[in-house]
Every structure is written in C-alpha cells, then in structure tokens.
Amino acid sequence: MVLDCFLLRSPSYEGQSRHFIPRNDNTNSQLNKLMAKTQTETMFQTAIKDLVDICPHCESRAHFQLLFSDSYQDNNESIIHYAVFRCVPCKKLILKTFKFCRNEFNKNNLSAVGWQDKFPKEKTYTSKFEGIVPLNALEDFKEGIICLHNNCPRAAVAMFRRSLQSALIDKGQSRKLDLIEQIKNASFLTKDIKEWAYSIRIFGNWGAHPQCDNLKDVDEKIALETKLFLEEFFNYVYVMPIRVTNARRNNTFE
To answer: Residues 150-177: what's their mean pLDDT?
Structure first.
C-alpha cells in the first residue's frame, strides 16, 4: 500500500534521527474531502448571497432568504452544496442545489457548474391548468418553465410559442397561418390581449433560419413576459369560461 508520510523531528535532541509516521489512504481521503469543502465554500457563499430567483410557490421573482446550507461529495467526487431558503414574499420554503466538478486533469481543482435542482419542482406553476388546458399546449408550457428555471430563455420562449400555437389551433385557428396571423384572426380574444401579443416581438416573424427567428435578442425579461402572457391567455380562454359556467350553475340552483 502506498503511504503518505509526515516527517517529525524530536524537540529534545538536535541530532536525533528522523522518524516517519505513515498516513494511510483513508486519512488522505478525509483530508481531500475537507480541502474540497473549504475550497468550494467561498464560491458557494458568493452564489447564495442576496439570491433572487423565481419562487415555485408564488411564481414571483423574489429574494430568497437563506436558512440553512451544507454539502456532500457524490459518487463522482463532485461537491454538491444544498441550501434551504425562504421566499420573502410568500414565506414558503425552497431547496436548491449547487454543483462543483473536479477537473479531469487535476483532481485537486474544482470548478463551479452552477445551480442544479430546485424543490418543489415546476409542477406548482402548471397544476392549476391541468385537465383544463389541452395536453399538447400544457406540456410545451411546462417544458418552457423548466428551460426558464435553467437559465435558457431562448429555449423557453420557443416552447412558450409552441404552446400558444397549439392552444390557438385547438380553438379553431388554421395550422397554415403564422402565429401572429392566428392571433389576429382569433375573434375570441379581446383587443387588449391582441395588442399585448403584438408587443411581444417573439410572436412576430418566425423564419426557418436562425437570423430570422428573433431568438438572438431574447433575454430573461422577454422570456418572463412571454410566460406571463401565456398564463393570462390560459386563464382567459380556458379557466374563466369554466368558472363562469360554474357560477351560473350555482346561481340556478339557489
């Protein structure tokens, strides 16, 4: 077995022979874990300081107050930090994980991969639409939310656009029309909703080539507005009619 050694000199005699005290592989492993945790702790504390994120409970972009954090090493020797936060507006709890990977050429160096998982999952966003919004439209919307939470705004708006187009087709719009024409021809939408849609540039030209699809200009702000528009669209087109029907039925039986 390969041994790592410490060299000790006795303080009693100047010329005393040197003694080697072996340190086994298990001790090495424990020291490496301690060094790795110390190395990543500073970077993790920087990442969680004044953290602002989308709350999976209240759906607002809000400040997360740190309550607790710790870390562990997984089977791939990556360091996973996890933290429990409280959403300042709604006071509910969120768990997030942050990953550090070892350098394949130098196992002593770790680099930040970034935020990984968030609990609860994004299902909180879409549960109110399940069984009401068509499945195709809702699945694309869910995927857009996941993209948005993983800092992929362009992928998010692409899925939001698919979701909206699926919903419009479900409501009778022609598949052959561009999305902006489908919105224009949707007689069931109010003037205000249409004008809001027109103001979101991602609903405009959608060419087959990258230079024509407007995605290059998309940032998180545009993705969040697109998400908000789609939520209000679902509420107006699918949720509200059901609520009105239920209210009329209840009034009938009074």
So the answer is: 91
The dihedrals phi and psi of 187, each to the nearest 5 degrees, come to: -65, -20
SS3 122: coil
User: What whole-number distance in Å separates Cα of residue 8 and Cα of residue 17?
Assistant: 10
Residue 240: what pLDDT?
93
Residue 71: which domain range? 20-119
Whose tokens are 């942050």? That residue is: 98
* pLDDT of amino acid 110: 82
Last residue of a domain, one of 95, 119, 143: 119
Helix (H, G, I), strand (E, B) or coil at 133: coil
Same domain, 101 and 30: yes
Strand 52-54 relative to strand 61-73: parallel, antiparallel, unpaired?
antiparallel
Mean pLDDT check: name the lowest of 14-18, 123-127, 177-181: 14-18
In a domain, 6, yes or no: no
